[in-house]
Amino acid sequence: MKEIRVQSQARNELIDVTSDVEKIIEKMNIKSGHVILYVPHTTAGITINEGADPSVQRDIITTLSRLIPPDGNYHHLEGNSDAHIKSSLLGCSVLVLVENNKPILGTWQRIFFYEGDGPRSRKIFVQS
Ligand code: ZN
After folding, report:
1. Which domain holds residue 81?
2. Given pLDDT bands bounded at 50, 70 and 90, which one contains residue 41?
3. Nearby residues for ligand 1 (ion, Cβ within 5 Å)
4. In the predicted model, what is the mean pLDDT of residues 24-30?
5. What is the CA(62)–ligand 1 centre distance, in A?
6. Mean pLDDT of 56-76
7. 93 C-alpha to center of ligand 1: Å?
8. How far is the CA of 55 from the centre of ligand 1 (A)?
């Protein structure tokens, strides 16, 4: 199993990790198969979406925060229930197909780590 380290800078943030994933896949030498990217955190997530226009990332972050406000009437005493809910909505893993040591992504697709309760040091596990 391999690991990608991510350092978030803000409370809510989408971080493009596509090039890190490409480097790891290159090292894993996968001719044809897949990798699973797994985020072992309860207030973060991982998702694949458009990377060409940064407005898309901004819209995802602001819409999630509008739907799931930080100051909702939550029971969890730690004060970060919004981040836990966003984490469950986005999910903690994605499967990426691999061909000739490269991830198969659509023209506009990029792989994003989602930070819901940053800034923090995070990781993504990668296994084929
Ligand atoms: Zn919590």
Report:
1. 2-127
2. very high
3. 78, 80
4. 94
5. 20
6. 96
7. 19
8. 28
User: How many residues in the chain?
Assistant: 128
Cα 22 from chain centroid (whole Å): 15
Interval between CA 117 and ligand 1 midpoint (Å): 9
Contact 14, 60 (CB under 8 A): yes
Q: What is the pLDDT of residue 24?
A: 96
Number of domains making up the chain: 1
Q: Looking at residue 35, which CATH number applies to its domain? A: 2.60.120.460
The pLDDT of residue 2 = 97
- In this prediction, residue 111 carries a pLDDT of 98
Nearest to 54 by CA among 118, 126, 112: 112
C-alpha 76 to ligand 1 mean position (Å) = 7
How far is 79 from 95, CA to CA, in rounded Å?
Answer: 31
